[in-house]
């Protein structure tokens, strides 16, 4: 699947939005990728995640387990694991920190890839990877549907993405005038877990 085909899937789902958005990272952007409008369509999600699984296999070889951060990474993590023939688990926040819960564990010798939906700064991905670093499996890399950092997000592990975009983001006190003139909307999920 090409980058243009990936973006066409987001456009067809009405998931490529323009306006003034406060991202999960706290940074501001004129573009928001509302992946949940993609994920509400199982065939579309399956197409994207199957393509991501192909990139993962090409980059990292066989994978035994996919780990994703809750909430946004659960659906693509599950679908990508299904395409890989792998198990899937997710980490979730407890007292502000990601951790494996619900009896999840990563077995010794398991080849693990962390799968995300959208990466902007890489913060959630880094936190997810750090939360499983003490597990006995081998973290071989990370993957996401869209890397909106333009390849600049540093995760500490190799990253493969279906699409890499360079969409500018801004600190709240450094907004360009055209963005500052629009009302801000905060559509992310981090606030659901008690994170502002």
Number of separate strands: 8
State the order of secondary-structure elements, H for helix, E for strand: HEEHHEHEEEHEEH
Rough shape? globular
Q: Determine the mean pLDDT.
A: 92
Tally of contiguous helical segments: 6
Strand content: 25-35%
Main sheet strand line-up:
5-4-3-6-7-8
Helix content range = 25-40%
Ends distance? 35 Å
Largest sheet: 6 strands, mixed
Q: Which spans of ≥5 residues are poorly predicted at pLDDT below 50?
A: 190-196
- Over all CA atoms, what is the radius of gyration? 16 Å
Report on the structure:
The protein has 196 residues and is of the alpha/beta class. The chain has six helices and eight strands, in the order αββααβαβββαββα. The protein has helices at residues 3-12, 35-39, 42-60, 74-84, 123-131, 177-180; strands spanning 16-22, 28-33, 65-69, 87-94, 97-100, 111-119, 138-147, 159-164. Strands 5-4-3-6-7-8 form a six-stranded mixed sheet. Helix 3 crosses helix 4. The chain starts with a helix and ends in a 16-residue tail after the last helix. GO terms for molecular function: orotate phosphoribosyltransferase activity. It catalyses: orotidine 5'-phosphate + diphosphate = orotate + 5-phospho-alpha-D-ribose 1-diphosphate. It holds the Pfam family Pribosyltran. Keywords: Glycosyltransferase, Magnesium, Pyrimidine biosynthesis, Transferase. Belongs to the purine/pyrimidine phosphoribosyltransferase family. PyrE subfamily.
């Amino acid at each position: 699947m090409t980058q243009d085909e990936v973006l066409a899937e987001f456009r067809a789902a009405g998931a490529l939005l323009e306006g003034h958005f406060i991202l999960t990272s706290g940074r501001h952007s004129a573009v928001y990728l509302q992946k949940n409008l993609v994920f509400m369509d199982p065939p579309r999600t399956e197409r994207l995640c199957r393509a991501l699984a192909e990139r993962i296999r090409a980059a990292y070889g066989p994978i035994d387990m996919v780990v994703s951060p809750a909430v946004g990474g659960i659906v693509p993590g599950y679908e990508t694991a299904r395409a890989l023939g792998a198990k899937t688990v997710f980490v979730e926040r407890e007292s502000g920190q990601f951790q494996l819960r619900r009896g999840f564990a990563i077995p010794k010798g398991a080849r693990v890839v962390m799968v995300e939906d959208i990466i902007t700064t890489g913060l959630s991905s880094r936190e997810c990877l750090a939360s499983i670093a003490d597990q006995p499996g081998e973290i071989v890399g990370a993957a996401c549907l869209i890397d909106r950092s333009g390849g600049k997000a540093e995760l500490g592990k190799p990253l493969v993405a279906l699409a890499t975009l360079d969409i500018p983001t801004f600190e709240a006190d450094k907004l360009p005038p055209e963005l500052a003139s629009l009302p801000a909307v905060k559509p992310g999920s981090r606030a659901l877990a008690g994170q502002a």
